[in-house]
Specification:
152 residues, mainly alpha, 7 helices, 0% strand
Amino acid sequence: MDDALDLLLGTYPSWSRFVVRLALGVVFVAHGGQKLFGWFGGQGLRATAQTFQRYLRIPPAATTFAVLVEFLGGVAMIVGFLSRPAAVGLIVIMLVAIAKVHRPHGFFLASQPGQSNGWEFNFVLIAMALSVLIGGAGALSIDALLRPYGVE
């Protein structure tokens, strides 16, 4: 049981992982909030589900699940609770986004108006989530309060 809890919650109080986790969480709460609630100029869940179904052929139930993973995964990153499972969910979301949307447009973000973004940003988010998955939530996290490894 201790090994399972260590895999799930264990972390060193690393400040660098805290910074990565916080930035990752802010990005996913913002983007998930656009899709879920219509925050920051987003469409909200109903319009997002319709758009994903029409253009990406993703069923509404799968869209709802993905949007919840994105938003709640971002919240989990910000507070540092169950950060490793959240990181897995966010990585999967980004891999699907690359496969369904960004891959055909190459690596780089759009450099001209009207161009579509490549998968560069998704790649960076995946790397950040991998950092949390490998090393845990870091300092100032609920995970560290529940299952600290020690000092790094």
